[in-house]
Amino acid sequence: MSVVKINAISVPPHAQERFEERFRGRGGAVEKTPGFEWFELLRPIEGTDQYLVYTRWESEEAYRSWEGSQDFARAHQGGGDELAPAASDSHHLWSYEVIESSAPDRP
Hints:
Blueprint lengths: L2 E8 L5 H9 L11 E7 L7 E8 L2 H8 L2 H6 L4 H9 L2 E7 L10
Antiparallel strand pairs: 1-3, 1-4, 2-3
């Protein structure tokens, strides 16, 4: 059963462009991680300053393996002096099990 991890990160307006740059410039190591299924960075449109970082994993064990890896540490160490504190002090990690999923029918 797949698991989803959603990291809700508050980013003040003045740091949002830099925050998005950080993700555009990421090395992509997560995509090579065994058990990784999906990644999305969701930008807030209105009513909040929280970005959502959505990842999907084939199991909790696969996520834990990524979380304990050197690639994870490298991916989460930077962001610059202005960005890192703004993001790290106000975030929440939510965990979900996927119990139903669908995709469009494609011929």
